Amino acid sequence: MLTKRGLPVCILGAVILTVSLAFAGPQAREDDREPAPRFHAKTLGGEQFTNDSTKGKVVLFQFWTTWCSYYKSEESLVNDLTTEFSGKGLVVIAVDVAESKKVVQQYLKDHPRKCHIVMTGDTNLAAMYAANRYPIYVVVDRDGKIVDTQHGAGGERPLRRSLARAGLESKDPE
User: Fold this and answer.
1) Domain 40-165 adopts which CATH fold?
2) Which of 2, 43, 95, 100 could make a disulfide contact with 47, Cβ separation 3.0–4.6 Å?
3) How far apart, in whole angstroms, are the C-alpha atoms of residue 42 and residue 8?
């Protein structure tokens, strides 16, 4: 079926939908944020985290493994973000997926982390976010709603944008 101008109706509908989303997208996205699933996590150091204990803070979950080269390429970036934003209410919880505590502790001796390290067996997070490729990042805002999920190493700019959408001021990466 064609419109009066000779355009197929499906193309016209796609154009209208695209323009509508362009104008409504940012506002609708903020209003439609999903609440983060209920979680519990215990760090290697024994600290406990839950939705209640992180309320009022921005949370960056990082799902990783010691053998993932993509994770390794962003390890220092996450350490830097942890340092930069910890005083502004950021909590970074790095969940090692499916490795032994011994392997992770040995890795951390050579590659110290500034964030909270959690093993898969000490949390329900990996299952909730279907962590089966690495790294995966999930940003949760101060109200406990998911702001963004990033699968794979995307570099500094996307992580900073996600943190900014969660309410953390950020310097623009060069």
Assistant:
1) Glutaredoxin (3.40.30)
2) 43
3) 56
Instruction: Give the residue, 126 or 21, on which the prediction is more confident.
Output: 126
| Secondary structure element (H or E) that encloses residue 62, with its range | strand 58-64
Predicted TM-score of the model (pTM): 0.81
d(CA 64, CA 99): 10
Q: Residue 22 pLDDT more than 60? A: no
The yes-or-no verdict on residue 19 having pLDDT over 70 is: no
Type of residue numbered 66: T
Return the SS3 of 21: helix
Place of tokens 């060069």: 174
- What is the model's pLDDT at position 18? 34
- 124's CB contacts (< 8 A; 6+ apart) are 39, 40
Mapping DSSP onto H, E and C, the string for 84-153 reads HHHHHCEEEEEEECCCCHHHHHHHHHHCCCCCEEEEEEEECHHHHCCCCCCCEEEEECCCCEEEEEEECC
User: Is 9 in a helix, a strand, or coil?
Assistant: helix
Asked if 117 and 92 count as a contact pair (C-beta separation under 8 A), the reply is: no
